[in-house]
TrEMBL record:
PANTHER family attached to this UniProt entry: ALPHA/BETA HYDROLASE DOMAIN-CONTAINING PROTEIN, PROTEIN ABHD13
Domain of life of the native organism: Bacteria
Keywords of the record: Hydrolase
GO MF annotations, alphabetized: hydrolase activity
InterPro entries in the cross-refs: AB_hydrolase_1 (IPR000073), AB_hydrolase_fold (IPR029058), Pept_S33_TAP-like_C (IPR013595)
Protein's name in the database: Alpha/beta hydrolase
Peptidase S33 tripeptidyl aminopeptidase-like C-terminal domain residues: 188-242
Pfam family, one: Abhydrolase_1
Record domain AB hydrolase-1: where: 72-172
Length: 254
């Protein structure tokens, strides 16, 4: 009986180790879902060489000091967000970043790669615009928060933001040692205290992907007095941008 039980425990251990290995080696496929770029009228395309990659950036050019850099979600074709941004900010130059592996950009995405690329994009555009604001949605909220912590951005808007992807993964897979397995943790809370720009968090009332508790936890990590939270009623993670209140919220943030 003891021998059979020991074999059972060994079998369970092997299964658990196998699942851990699966999560570790294939974790990128759970985080990143590269999309092709759709056409975007009234824009041009800029190609920017960064370390080990060439990024595609869709740009709606406007002369002047003000510009917006947009970092999208993990399964987003950022070009589809252009009409909303143009409607909200007709006088701004707008730059939509296609992550590595997305929209014609070369390379493979990772947290470190996205952070490095974001700095290169900002430094390039700062040569042309004195006032650069950031909009980061979902996955992109982590990229934007990091960039705002290390560069002098004018304003920061985070749409459906999270406190940490590590925390979200731990909630989803409580039976696994996620903190050991996960390489790309996207711990926005670590960078929030270093952000000096006025910041707006925009949350969906019924977000089925990022719990409101995660967004509120992130809010608490920013400096007091510089950050606001707006909740768009009657929306989910993927429908938040369909409401007129969303455009008004964007405008209030920038």
């Amino acid at each position: 009986m003891i021998n059979k039980f020991s074999k059972f425990l060994v079998a369970i251990a092997i299964v658990c180790l196998g699942l851990c290995a699966l999560l570790y080696f294939f974790q990128s496929s759970f985080i990143y879902f590269p999309q092709k770029a759709s056409s975007a009228s009234g824009t041009t395309t800029m190609r920017l060489v960064t370390e080990q990659a060439e990024l595609v950036i869709t740009q709606r050019e406007r002369r002047g000091a003000k510009a917006i850099i947009y970092f999208g979600g993990n399964a987003e074709d950022v070009n589809r967000s252009l009409p909303t941004l143009v409607s909200a900010f007709p006088e701004h130059a707008i730059y939509l970043v296609h992550y590595r592996g997305y929209g014609g950009s070369s390379g493979s995405p990772s947290e470190l790669a996205l952070q490095m690329d974001a700095k290169v994009v900002f430094d390039k555009l700062r040569q042309e615009h004195d006032s650069i604001s950031l909009v980061g949605r979902s996955l992109g909220s982590g990229v934007a928060t990091y960039l705002a912590s290390v560069r002098p951005v004018s304003r920061l808007v985070l749409v459906t933001p999270y406190n940490s992807i590590l925390e979200l993964a731990q909630q989803k897979f409580p039976m696994f040692p996620i903190s050991w397995l996960l390489r790309d943790k996207f711990e926005s809370w670590k960078y929030a205290q270093q952000v000096s720009a006025p910041t707006l968090l925009i949350a969906a009332e019924h977000d089925e992907i990022i719990p409101m508790s995660s967004t509120r936890a992130l809010l608490e990590n920013f400096r007091q007095g510089q950050t606001q939270l707006v909740v768009i009623k009657g929306t989910g993670h993927n429908t938040i941008s369909q409401k007129a209140d969303y455009v008004r919220a964007l405008q209030s943030g920038l």
